[in-house]
Amino acid sequence: MTSTNKSKNTFALTTPVYYVNDVPHIGSAYTTIAADVVARFERLRGKPVLLITGTDEHGLKIQRAAQSAGLTPQEHCDTIAAAFDKLWHQLDIQYDRFIRTTSPRHQSIVLEFFQRVWDSGDIYSGRQQGWYCVSCEEFKEERDLLDGHRCPLHPNKEAEWRDEQNYFFRLSKYQSRLEALYQERPDFIAPESRRNEVLSFVAQGLQDFSISRVNLEWGFPVPADPKHTLYVWFDALLGYVTALLEPDQEPTLSQALATWWPINLHLIGKDILRFHAVYWPAMLMSAGVPLPEKVFGHGFLTKDGQKISKTLGNVIDPADLVSRYSSDAVRYYFLKEIEFGKDGDFNETRFVNILNADLANDLGNLLNRTLGMARKYASGCVPGVAGADIPSDNPLKARGLTLGEEVARAYESLAFSSGCEAILALVRACNKYIDDRAPWTLHKQGQQREVSEVLYSVLESVRLAAYLLSPIIPNISTEIYRQLGFKLQPLPELTPQTGQRAAAGHLDLVALKEPAPSALPEAAAPTAAPAFEAASPAQGQRWSKVLRPFAEAPAYLADALAETKGLLIAVLLLLLAIFAGNALVELARRTDRIPVVSPTLEAIGIGYTIWFIYRYALFAAGRQALFGNLQSLKQEFFGGNSPAAKIKTPPLALSTDTSPSAEGVSALPPLEAQPFAPDSPARYIDFNDRAAIAAAAPFSTHSRWGTLPASQPLGEAKPVFQRLQSAEPVSPSR
Ligand SMILES: [Zn+2]
Question: Domain for residue 349, yes or no?
């Protein structure tokens, strides 16, 4: 009973099923971000992953909250559940199931489970007397309450005295089996401090707890006695089981438990530890269901060193935070800055400083300056050296070779903070390495081989850092990969500020919502997005590649004009064009052999050509584009298997046409010319694209230092993370 099936290669994890008494707060966001990071990491490792979240919608507190808002309980739940769903989209949470406990399918599961526990003789009717905290939905021991019978977690609310007939669950019967469980499986509760908390609670002696309420309408009636309503926790915990059902599956326990059970990880806040680490395993034991693998309780958040509470008016609105700073920023701060499992603090000034230091300066500037040097010293390409040829005493290689495993262990043990630290250490080592080696001096001295080694090892280290950080900052990592020249499928438009994807509905592809009465709008059935689209460039399009740069010259000109030297360049070009035009006209007149159409038209044509050549000569991006176009033309006309032909043409720096058919797809060689190669790291581009990640090479390949393809043309450089300017105080909200 206490064993789990560790051999299965799937990974199922849950956030709490959040109570919908109010809109989501920062604590819920914190748990859910962490869960999403674990899910993304396990997906990188190639495991099928099921991330479950949802809302717990029954109980007295909901009934009262709805009443005070003048809504029916269901209306209230619909509004709040939608707010959760919206926030998860804003935070790039890629959940698989959103369970709502008001769904009829959930009722079927709860009733069947209740029956099993009933049949085990673990439910009886008895008298419940005691202090009840409505906010916790829990009876409190007298010894746990503060003065005036106030709940320690809700000190501004008095607990209510209750004396009623209830149904009880025989928790006391499971005292010794639970103790045995904690002994046999020391990692069942984590971290260590939570485990100790539970051990001492259980050592005090477990008391049966009531699983029904009278005078409560908003919930499922107890089957044997409909005057009673099932207690909210008995109902809510089973949301984890209901969520495992496929949308079209018959709602039975055996169906629900068939594929994903046992859950690998319940991620929770420490306030609901007892329900998950004591009540829940006992309920499962009673129903004869195997136990989950692990319960991890993280710490509480404070703001500026103070407890966060509505009374203090210092509530952090996560939706406001993410809209002002981007999801990557919020995700990174909470996972990097707070040791997961311990209490942690949010301070907006520190928030801004850390993001600027780590993401804008250390990581962003590093990439930017290195791309600049690659443009100067390596024709805008990854230098043509292989990672394997770089000596192992290279400080970046030495560090990078073990980093993948180290970070994987950190993710596995939910030590996000130390994982980030290890990655950032490599990034900082890169900055130091560049300063030490001074590639600009090496270049002057003609030591091209050394310059290549420096640039390659830095670019590769940035790639590795982006890959390993991708579960936490998927948008920034995607942008870094793009700038490193990985581009095999068209990207949706990027928003200018953060490089975040614009609302492309990418979650809707994979999100499976639990159907519920008057529920959230149902998502489409999951459809695997094609990893890339078949491209069949028409004959005429070949020449459009040659001609396109001419058509885009005005855009280049506009760009140059916007630059500081633009006006000077324009004037010089104009003079040059007039001079050349006149000279040509003069020549034509003298020889009297060239028909003169119009000196003005000729002047424009010649000026245009000179500008075009100048543009390509001056800017690396232009050279790359020309190079890429010529390569793909060569590929189409002569076939061939040169490494460069496998790499997709980088985009023109100023292409204004972002439609996939014009830019991305037509530039791809046809499918036959580029067979699906899952072991090619160059395929990997969008860390939000689950289909692409599932099809990509394994974690062991990408997390190995030295896999950046040599001579890969680099993409256009731009800041991957805009420096945050100031810390406006978070509006005290709600
Ligand atoms: Zn309470």
Answer: yes
Instruction: State residue 122's pLDDT score.
Output: 98
CATH code where residue 73 lies: 3.40.50.620
- Residue 202's pLDDT is 97
Whole-number Å distance, alpha carbon 517 to ligand 1 midpoint, is: 30
* Distance from C-alpha of 336 to C-alpha of 17, rounded to nearest angstrom: 25
| Residue pair 557/571 in contact by the 8 Å Cβ criterion | no
Q: Which residue shows structure tokens 């081989």?
A: 449
460 shares a domain with 334: yes
Number of domains making up the chain: 3
**Tens-place pLDDT, residues 105-129:** 999 999 999 999 999 999 999 998 8
Choose the final residue of a domain: 630, 654, 669. 669
575 plus 626 within the same structural domain = yes
Q: How far apart are the CA of 131 and the centre of ligand 1, in A?
A: 10
Residues 582 and 478 reside in one and the same domain: no
3-state secondary structure 107-174: HHHHHHHHHHHHHCCCEEEEEEEEEEECCCCEEECHHHCEHHHEECCEEEEECEEEEEEEEEECHHHH
Distance 478 CA to ligand 1 centre (A): 43
Residue 1 lies inside a defined structural domain of this protein: no
Give the residue ranges of the chain where pLDDT is below 70: 1-7, 487-567, 569-570, 592-597, 612-684, 726-734
Cα–Cα distance measured from residue 181 to residue 198, given in angstroms and rounded to the nearest whole number: 12
Do 316 and 346 touch, CB atoms closer than 8 A? yes
How many Å lie between the centroid of ligand 1 and the Cα of residue 148?
A: 13
Q: What's the CA-to-centroid distance between 231 and ligand 1, angstroms? A: 16
For 405, the domain range is 327-513
Task: For residue 429, give the CATH number of its domain.
Answer: 1.10.730.10
DSSP 8-state code for residue 358: I
Between the CA of 318 and the centroid of ligand 1 the distance, in Å, is: 23
Q: Angle at Cα 533 formed by Cα 527 and Cα 537, nearest 5°? A: 160
153 Cα to the center of ligand 1, angstroms: 5
Q: How far is the CA of 135 from the centre of ligand 1 (A)?
A: 5
Entry pTM? 0.74
Distance 111 CA to ligand 1 centre (A): 27
Taking the centre of ligand 1 as the mean of its atom positions, its distance from the CA of residue 141, in whole angstroms, is: 11
Helix and strand counts by DSSP (H, E) for the chain: 28, 19
Residue 702 lies in a domain: no
